[in-house]
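User: Predict the structure for this protein chain, please.
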Amino acid sequence: MILVADCSALVALSVCDSLNLLEKLFTSVVVPETVYLEATHPNKKQAQALKIFLHGKVRQKELRIMARISTADLLTEK
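Assistant: Here is the predicted structure, written as structure tokens:
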């Protein structure tokens, strides 16, 4: 199973020195580039540990449309 991790989970696991759990539980761990930039910001205490862990796991942002909702649908009461 692939995990697409968010920043808060990564920081929390890093604080607990438990990032290795992700690789034990999932076949692949990936993060969007924006999550990487947030998690490794210089003002974060865990930035260096996260840079090391996330090496090779960063993916460029890919946008996919999951559903289309028209403006009319949003304005219609159901």
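The longest helix spans residues 7-15.
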